[in-house]
Amino acid sequence: MHRPYVTIVAVVLAALAWLATSSTRPLGPSMALAEVPAPAKTSARDGWRKEFEEVCARTQDAMTLSTSELRSLVERCDILKPALEALGGSEGKVYVKRLLACRNLYAYVLESRQVQ
Amino acid sequence: MRRIWFAMLFAALLPAVAHAQQASGKKRRPLPPEFGRVVLDKGLDKGPVAPVVFDHWLHRAKYTCRLCHVDIGFAMTPNGTNIKASDNAAGFFCGACHNGKTLAGGKKVFESCGGAGSADKGATCLRCHSLGKNVKPEHDFATFTRGLPRGRFGNGVDWEKAEEMGLIKPVDFLEGISIPRKSLTAQKDFALSPRLPGMPEITFSHAKHTVWNGCELCHPEIFSAVKKGQVKYTMSEIFDGKYCGVCHVNVAFPLQDCQRCHVKPVQ
Question: Which domain holds residue B87?
Fold first, then answer.
């Protein structure tokens, strides 16, 4: 009694699977499977590099930045540091040192404001 | 007879004085081309490759201190950077410019620690790894500094005046390495009172320093005080290579040139 139902379900599933993998057969809206977009190829390198350049570009006018801006920059440096440490090798060595130079300058200016 | 006696005494004492000076570890003052020389010998003093001899005078005429010591990441003390050949070959530190591609004065800068050394049987390596080797440098100091304003000590060149006159134009930006920044608004000059009564007051010029250094090279690594008067700087510490001495012992105009800093006469 159950065998025909199993057969029908199996056939339907097989058909759906074939339709899903077929690139030439046009699918109607009711038959189309949602196509999951491929994840955007976010370059991790571009991410940290962009953040690094944004954060360390403000050293020239550190003295004119507000206290909140300085605090924000210090926080952004602290958040970025692990990503640069994870680079390892020569690149990690250089960029961690550069980041610390920026971060420490902002912290220094912040501290001088607080003392005054 | 008395003159002969004094001459003999002088001749007898002279070797003793020279020996005592040597024994005390007193170094002779470096010659103008030698001033600013840094020897990088970490891990190289016993190996097959000679330690590196780096003379600041050529690089400082072409690039700001900030470019090398902030953007490229060189430490402010010899051997402090812990550079490896692999770092240079990967385009960091010396390799940031010494890559066989970067142009300086219209010429390609030679590649350091890359394949060039093996291709020419180490001749390229010797350009830097030259301690104790008889290597003729590509740039002659006397020729290079001819026409630059004279200084009393150090390299014998007034680098500050040379820059003001436009005779040297130190580059402050390296594509792919430096971050585009706004031009720096220099802080005001200020006076410092010397601890020794009678010495002229020191005028410190931020404007002159930021031409070469930017802010982050000095603050807070070299000067960490956040309030004027918080730290009492002593000449013995400065001569020992701290504070101003980080630069003014070995690369910038030396501390023997007192009047460059102690400029304000006592009223």
Answer: 37-144
Residues in A closer than 8 angstroms to B86, CB to CB, are 90
The answer to whether the CB atoms of A108 and B224 lie below 8 A apart is yes
B-chain residues near A55 (CB < 8 A): none
Residue B231 and residue B171 in contact, taking contact as beta carbons nearer than 8 Å: no
pLDDT in tens, B4-36: 877 777 666 666 665 555 555 567 889 999 999
B189 belongs to a structural domain: yes
Q: What is the pLDDT of residue A26?
A: 42
Which residue of B lies nearest to A104 if distances are taken between CA atoms?
A: B220
Q: Give residue A111's pLDDT band: very low, low, confident or very high (50, 70, 90).
A: very high
pLDDT range class, residue B195, cuts 50, 70, 90 = confident
Query: Residue B203 forms beta bridges with which residues?
Result: B191
Q: Is residue B161 part of a domain?
A: no
Nearest-CA distance A115 → chain B (Å): 7
| Tens of pLDDT, residues A18-30 | 665 554 444 344 4
Considering the domain architecture, whether residues B122 and B216 belong to the same structural domain is answered as no
Same domain, B242 and B186: yes
Among B144, B162, B193, the domain-final residue is: B144
Judged by a CB distance cut-off of 8 A, whether residue A107 touches chain B is: yes
- Shortest CB distance from B216 goes to which of A52, A94, A101? A101
CATH number at residue B71: 3.90.10.10
Which residues in chain A touch residue B184, judged by CB atoms under 8 angstroms apart?
60-61
Q: What average pLDDT score do residues B200-227 get?
A: 90
Distance CA B98, CA B76 (A): 20
A61 and B CB contact within 8 Å: yes
The answer to whether position B160 is within a domain reads no
Confidence of residue A67 (pLDDT cuts 50, 70, 90): very high
User: pLDDT above 70 covers what percent of chain A?
Assistant: 69
Q: Does residue B52 lie in a domain region?
A: yes
Picking from B86, B174, B226 by the largest number of A CB atoms within 10 A of its own CB, the best residue to mutate is B226
Query: What pLDDT is recorded for position B33?
Result: 95
| The two structure tokens encoding residue B161 | 């005046």
Under an 8 A CB cutoff, do B221 and A91 touch? no
User: In this predicted complex, what is the ipTM?
Assistant: 0.83
Choosing from B144, B164, B193, the residue where a domain stops is B144
